[in-house]
Amino acid sequence: LKKLKDTDSKELVLGDFSWFDNLEEEIDVVIGIGNPKNRLAVGKILAKNKYLNFPNIFHPSVRFQKTTCILGKGIIICANTLLTTNIQIDDFVLINLSCVIGHESKIGKGSVINSLAKISGGVMIGREVLIGTGATILQYRSVGNNSTIGASSCVTKSIPDNVIAFGLPAKIIRTEL
Description:
- The protein is mostly beta strands.
- Helices cover 6% and strands 29% of the residues.
- The chain is built from one helix and 22 strands.
- The protein has one helix spanning 36-46; strands at 3-5, 11-13, 27-28, 52-53, 57-58, 70-71, 76-77, 82-83, 88-89, 94-95, 100-101, 106-107, 112-113, 118-119, 124-125, 130-131, 136-137, 142-143, 148-149, 154-155, 163-166, 171-175.
- The strands form five sheets. The chain has an eight-stranded mixed sheet, with no helix packed on it. It has a five-stranded parallel sheet with strand order 6-9-12-15-18, with no helix packed on it.
- The two termini are 21 Å apart.
């Protein structure tokens, strides 16, 4: 899955997917990884196996309007989260504890929204985005693909792809490679 180096500079493999190769019946799989890139990488590998299902896992306290929300697969939404109306959540999104997602918002594939984040109405979150704990994104703003919004930041202007933004108001502090 991912190779790391120990103190002797030898590569260590944390795991692989070989045990899925011998499945003969369907099983449900949940991806509990908090890094957006890794969530999607694992999802892509596992999606090739016809015996794996990716259910959506919502804590019973999550409130949302089922008739107007469009939901992908493999979504995890944690306790006390509120989703309003006409929201689209793409595959493999993780929304942590006590978040609020406003009307007509879209959360892109593999994105991770950490605890207490507040996403106002009409917000567009790209693919593989990480929203830090307690961050706020104001109405009708967007956060580009592969970007990170720091904890407790407030997005008052749209954020482009591949950057890290932090502060009040959020400002780009680094461009991702």
